[in-house]
Design goal:
The protein has about 100 residues and is α+β, with helices and mostly antiparallel strands. A hairpin with a 2-residue loop joins strand 1 and strand 2. The protein has a two-stranded antiparallel ribbon. The chain is built from 5 helices and 2 strands, in the order αααααββ.
Length: about 100
């Protein structure tokens, strides 16, 4: 599952969890133990096949989840100026 998640979908564990409707820690546990429930393995395989085959709905959902994940996990630094607040830096946050 980890290979499809990171290489196929380019998704983080929390993002894949959102796609599956489960908790991110569950995906982490599955990847660490190597024990993935059959339903999850089949669902991820089907979603990956549809994504790779060009299914626009699946591609759109995966892209949207990835976009939201990137936006949520970024650090934005603002600086007060005479004209108001100005963004001085925007970078990915360090993983917790």
């Amino acid at each position: 599952m980890g290979y499809l998640r990171s290489s196929g979908f380019l998704m983080s564990q929390p993002s894949l969890a959102k796609l599956l409707g489960i908790d991110g820690q569950t995906v982490a546990r599955w990847e660490k133990s190597g024990k993935v429930p059959k339903w999850a393995d089949k669902l991820v395989s089907l979603l990956y096949a549809a994504h790779a085959d060009g299914n626009e709905t699946i591609q759109s959902v995966v892209a949207r989840i990835n976009d939201v994940d990137r936006l949520v996990n970024q650090d934005i630094t603002l600086e007060a100026t005479s004209a108001g607040w100005e963004m001085v830096a925007c970078e990915m946050a360090e993983a917790a």
